[in-house]
Amino acid sequence: MSGGKRVLRRYPKNPILVPDKNNWWESKAVFNCGVLYDHKIFHMLYRAIGEYENYVSRIGYACSSDGFNFERREDIAFTPSEQYERYGMEDPRLVKIENRYYITYVVLSDYVRQKPEVFTALATTTDFRKFTKLGIITSNSADNKDVVLFPDRLSYVSAGVKGASYFSLHRPSTWIGSAYGVDRPSIWLGEGESLTSVGKHTLLIKPERDWEALKVGAGIPPIKTKKGWLVIYHGVSHDKVYSAGAALLDVEQPSRIVGRTRSPILEPEEPYERFGDVNNVVFPTGACVVNKELYVYYGGADKVCCLAIANLDALVEHILKEG
Ligand code: BMA
User: Fold this and answer.
1) How many angstroms does the Cα of residue 252 sit away from the middle of ligand 1?
2) What is the pTM of this model?
3) How confident is the model at residue 284, as a pLDDT?
4) Which residues have CB under 6 Å of ligand 1?
5) Which among 11, 25, 39, 142 could disulfide-bond with 50, CB atoms 3.0 to 4.6 Å apart, if both were Cys?
6) Which residues of the chain have pLDDT under 70?
7) Got the DSSP string for 120-162?
8) Rounded distance from Cα 104 to ligand 1 centre (Å)
9) What is the tens place of the pLDDT at every residue in 198-252?
10) Angle in degrees, CA 134, 138, 139, rounded to 5
């Protein structure tokens, strides 16, 4: 048993959200949820599947006062309406920036070319009822998903002038080869003047161990701790097992990694993680800190939503100890 498994513990009553057979658009699978804790309410947006023929994902909303028991809204919260969303909206990640909630979500699109491609889009809301869609934020031909935004702008001084940048993590799958310095899809740090334009990209986390050998992708939006930005990401092994690892980035200079786990902090073990629409998947997409505890929300086997909890300080120490 790795040390990480003792740090992040599954909620014993997992899964916390399962498909609802009586509601067509979420009758087959509900998974990969973004969760945000604000004013004592846990807001959740989750990916929902209602049919396997076209496998179009829609997004549902649920909320909770304790983080365990979620009450869902009957109607689809956030539905494909734009040309670029017509094949579905997947894996919402939630973050609050300057009093607005922002959602990054994956879209499968053929609007740029004839063949469907993977992009990430951005939307914003203040009440989880009315959403404003801000369009695609990733570049063409990069096959880019797992985009998470940092919750704060970070200040800098350049040539004596003060400024602040928005940061994100993203995973451009086609950025591999000698020109990119990496041979497997990796996590990059994006920096830009606004949330919709990224001017600078830095290679951040690339696959290093067997459990993440095939590719890595950011999971939760980074969380600021005293020892650095906490990043929880997924890694995929050669036999397509999705596990979760963690890293810490320097608070002021997030391109500097100050710690990273060698072994997963969570890997598929329970039946709801091993058997589903895609077997052997734990896929973290949301997290919140409540009374020094870190609640990590993740998808189990592309079928259900689950929760695991760690003491935040203990997890940070574990990451620093691992290297
Ligand atoms: C990734 C995404 C996730 C999914 C995972 C496992 O590429 O599509 O939505 O949970 O694969 O199938």
Assistant:
1) 31
2) 0.96
3) 98
4) 32, 90-91, 242, 278, 281, 283, 299, 302
5) 25
6) 1-5, 110-116
7) EEEEEESSSSSEEEEEE-S-TTS-EEEEEE-SS-EEEEETTEE
8) 15
9) 989 999 999 999 999 999 999 999 999 999 999 999 999 999 999 999 999 999 9
10) 125
